[in-house]
Every structure is written in C-alpha cells, then in structure tokens.
Fold this protein.
Amino acid sequence: VKKIESEARELRNDCEERGDCDAFDPALLTLSMDEDDDGGAGASSAPAAEVYRNPPRGLSMFWYPAVLSSSLPEGGTNSVGFELLGTPLVVFRDNTGAARCLKDECPHRLAPLSDGRLATEPETGAKRLECSYHGWQFEGACGKCTKLPQLDTGKQLLPLYDARAYPVEESQGILYVFLGSSEQTRLVAPLTLSSVRSVPGS
C-alpha cells in the first residue's frame, strides 16, 4: 500500500509541475484501501494485488501511453491486447480508422477478446470485435454488443451483454488510454511528447 501511495504522490507532483491539476478533486487523488470503485466502504484487509486489479481513482485519472500507432495499421484487421494497472485491455481500429479500446474480457465467459477477430458487417461495412469463444460481437466506441448468435429470435440485446469501453486518444504516433469514465476525460488532457521534459545530456 505504501508503494502505491508513493506512486500516487509522484503522479500528483508531475501534474502540479505541468500546471494541469486545477480541475482535480483532491479526493480523486487519494488512495485508500477502505474505498472501492464506487467510493463506498470496502474491506480494508484486501490484498494490495486487488488494488491494482481495480485501480484506485487517483491512478485511473490519467492518460497512459499504451500502444504505438504503428501496431494498428489503418485498414488492418488485427487487435492488440495488453495490461494496464492490472486491467486487461484490447485496442483495434474500426472501419473509420479510429482507435478503440475495450476491456479484454468477453462479458459472457471472460474469454480474451484479443484472441478473437475483427468481423465486418456486410450491410454497413462496420468493424466489430468478435469473441473467439461464442461469436459475440462488440462495437468499439461504447462496447455495445451488436451480435449474439445464441440469442433466441425476438429477444433483445441487453446492456449487460456489453463490453466495457475505455476512452482512447491518438497523438504523435502513440495511443493513450484513460481508465476513468469518458465524462472524466474533460478533467485532464492527454500527455504529448512535447510536454515531456528532456533528460539533461540526452
């Protein structure tokens, strides 16, 4: 826990040096083993590994450089899976060329979506990420489940079938991922290479 708190303090110092902490609620940068994702009371005896599995709000309130843009060539059909703060993620490009990010877990059986394929909808040309296990397909911008082959005729696709989507920005050849909600992205701007201080003597 002390290590996590130390990392949070370093992140806070960095944003203060950049001068972009004014919009932050200090409570969002406070780490506590007694708070869960919803800000309520949780078990204080939870192991530190679980904190990383569900990142504290302080650590989720930043854009993280995650994947090089060159890993996802435009017009390509690949996806890239990786882990960020203990959260499995997958990025891919939709039919417009925009980068999208989903949690790398199918809501059905938690199979890695990165093991699946990009499926193209014949009528619209839209690209969906398809789970390799049962063929569920997900839209990239919001994670909406658009196809469930096992669903009985006449039944609707429910929100509980949707995958978790994360904000993603592309700048200077890098994909940045934000682990907070899309509403919280207005509080911070993506880190760009021009704002990274050069190392003396480099």
